[in-house]
Amino acid sequence: MSLFSSLTTSARSLEAQRMGLEVTGENIANVNTPGFSRRVVDFASVAPEAGGGVDVESVRATRDRLLDRRLQQEVPAERREAAMASSLSVVETSLGAAGQSLDLGLSNFFDSFSRLAETPTSSVARQEVLLQGETLAQTFQEMSRRLESSQVDTDRSIRSTVDEVNALAQRIATLNQSMGGPQDASQTHLQDEQAGLVRKLSELVDISVIDREDGGGVDVSFGNGRSLVIGDQARALVATPTGPSGLSTLSVAGNTITSEITGGKLGGLLNVRDVNIPDYMNQLDTLAFGVANEVNSAHTVGYTLTGAAAGDFFVQPAAVAGAARAMAVESAIAGDVGLIAASGTGAAGDNATATTITRLRDARVLNGNTATFSDGWSQLVYRVGRDTQTAKAEQSSREEIVRQVDTLRDEVSGISLDEETMHLLKYQRAYEANARFFSAINSAIDTLIQTMGR
Amino acid sequence: MRVTFNAQYRDLQVGIDRSSETLLEMQRQVSSGKRISKPSDDPASASAAVTGRNDITRIERYTQTADSVTSRLTVIDTVLSDITDKLSQARSTGLAASGSQKTEVEREAAAQTLTGLRDAIFDDLNTSFNGIYVFAGTASSTKPYDRNPVGTPPAINPTYQGSSDEAEVDVDTGRSVKVTYNGESLAKGSAANDIFTVFDNLIAAVRGGSTVTTPSNQPGIEAAVADLKTAIDRISTSQTRLGTQMKTLEELKPQLAEMKLQAQTRLDKTENVDMAEAISGMTQAETAYRAALGAAGTTTKTSLMDFIR
Predict the structure, then answer these.
(1) What pLDDT does B210 receive?
(2) Which residues 347-366 on chain A approach chain B with CB closer than 8 angstroms?
């Protein structure tokens, strides 16, 4: 090997070590960049025939596909519970403060009938019954309205989540277009970016991701194998308001897939909208229907203050569905409290009907005659509380799993500043040593020229 | 294992988040005194609390009813005592007016006294409490007796306009108390004549007037006095029954109070925090929070950077 080729060798080595420094710099710079994978420089010695020394073979991103896949499975489950927990917490507040809500309304209502039983002819007691009846009806209406508006709010979140899904799918498709070239630094960068987008998408909806065989990024599908991204094409997820409720139905390429989405934020929101809230509404309606129906049955066999046969107390609901929303005191009674039935015989001072209605308070008339009205309310409170609590507990345990997988992933792809500092030292020293070699060769050449040239 | 910058910070952050969340929750419990602020804190307890509060309000209602019923029964009791007194008085007046030694004036005076007693009893039976005629049965807004004067001097000749049904009020689950009385069963019962007719007969007998069928007024007075005795017995029996009910009510009230206390205690246990426990929990949470903050402070201080010079 000639002295001059040694110069070339050391120049190449200097270049290689400088590259190491650069990559270390990039790693340090991106220590806080989400989704960034640690870059590693692979050196390879150059054969003496080719000039010797060292060259940078590749700069590669350290990434563990398996852990990435694992995250794509765990993240949707965690996000689903998170979305449910936060939506249900809002629903929970609509139940009102403990002891100040529907249970108070029910107590006061039956108490007013108990007072009426004490003084069946008192117009004050009758006014009180009317007032408490109206308050109870309003409480039912209000609670039903609050549940409905929670449902509508959830639907609004579903629509905005659908927009996010579409935006992400579009960006992933666009990246697919730019990928697939030779594996260079820009490809690594695109892969990082795409991995970040896929992660974000998996937070919104449970997806399965397949690497494209041509190396051009990933294909994404969701639901029952519905494609969302194929190559550079993203298919739009469409939310269409449907039916009298105006709640959105989700479809992709004309197929309704609302019930296929179970994971991610979208899955959680859909579950709250289509399973949890309707369940609560049904319980509330059952309770309202029970109250109106039982009170009416007792009321209509009674007699008014003037001894005439009494009518309904509450407007008789046609069906369980919508009973809470439609709850109201009969307008005739609101106009004349004398029409409230206290008497069971027609005599003004009789209180048999008022007593019968008072006793409804502890009568087991709900759920196939197994539960009182208070039980009905307590079951609703329990159901909402339990659903919220379960979602929160699920979320925190899932969060822990995600965190652990994230830590494992970081072990491979993450950046340790101490390590990078060591690399910094390593490359710096190697650069210095190579530079020393360069100057040694240089001075050797110098010596040669000086002595020979004399 | 490679310890990376982000993993390290993520762990620290989770530690701080968790311990500060616990601390916040413990502080909330201590400051509010409530273990449950929303159903999801403890669904089973929140649901049990609903039942507990329902128990309490029911007991409170029964207590209020018992109080108002007691005051009504006290009035009825007083009226019944008054009627019995007046009947005894009438009986002795009647007896005193019998005998041949009595002068016309004395007998007229006795007749006047008896008329006064009769009218007083008439008013007694028309007693109303808070707008309710307590002796009208379930027809409590109708005056039970009305004057229907016939003859001279007028007999009041009232007819009972109330109902023979009596209203009861629940004072506990499955226990009820009669709150309106059938006036007729008191004034007449199963006897042939009601009190007022007995009085009119007695007054006529005392005066020796024409309404007495027997020629001598002595048997008339005796018959009327015997009828008065029957009336006294009848009313006393009712009063004894009333007394028993009042006694039951008086016994019921402390029972209700005890039941309420127990229900309240149960509810407190369900809903409220044990302060000592909550405060020690808060202190623990605070220590954990400090530790998490401290850990964050120390781990991030050391770096290889510090040793390269």
Answers:
(1) 44
(2) 347-352, 355, 358-359, 361-362
Query: Which residues does chain A have within 8 Å of residue B36's beta carbon, measured at their own beta carbons?
Result: 98
* Residue A205, domain member (yes or no): yes
- On the question of a cis peptide bond just before residue B153, with omega within 30 degrees of 0, the verdict is yes
Q: For residue A423, is it within any domain?
A: yes
DSSP per-residue letters across A183-228: S-HHHHHHHHHHHHHHHHHHHHS-EEEEE-TTSS-EEEEETTTEEE
Tokens of A447: 């010596």
Decide if A421 touches B, using CB distance below 8 A.
yes
A352-356, A403-407, B3-7: range with lowest mean pLDDT = B3-7
- The domain tally of chain A equals 2
- Beta strand residue intervals within A76-134, DSSP E: none
Determine contact, residues A153/A90, Cβ cutoff 8 Å.
Answer: yes
- pLDDT value at residue A454: 62
Residues of B with CB below 8 A from A412's CB? 2
Half-sphere exposure at residue B222, Cβ-oriented, CA atoms within 13 angstroms = 6
Cα B184 from Cα A90, distance rounded (Å): 63
* Statement: B51-266 belongs to CATH 1.20.1330.10: yes
Q: How many of the other CB atoms lie within 10 Å of CB of A238?
A: 16
- In this predicted model, what pLDDT tens digit does every residue of A236-279 receive, in sequence order? 999 999 888 889 999 998 889 999 999 999 999 999 999 999 99
CB contact under 8 A, B49 and A98: yes
Determine the residue type at B38: K
Residues A269, A372 share a domain: yes
What's the confidence (pLDDT) of residue A136? 95
Among residues A402, A428, A444, the one where a domain terminates is A402
Asked casually if ipTM beats, i.e. exceeds, 0.95, the reply is: no
Low-confidence ranges of chain B (pLDDT < 70): 99-101, 209-216, 300, 309
Total-model pTM: 0.85
The 10s digit of each residue's pLDDT in A71-113 is 888 999 999 999 999 999 999 988 888 888 899 999 999 999 9
Instruction: Tell me what pLDDT residue A35 has.
Output: 79
Whether the pLDDT of residue A1 is over 80: the answer is no
Examine the domain organization and report whether A184 and A261 are in the same domain: yes
**Same domain (yes/no): A119, A11:** no
Find the domain containing A147 and state its range.
94-402
**Co-location of A366 and A444 in the same domain:** no
Chain mean position to CA A412: 28
Do A201 and A164 fall within a single domain?
A: yes
C-beta atoms of A382 and B46 within 8 A: yes
Residues A107 and A46 in one domain: no
Domain boundaries, chain B: 51-266
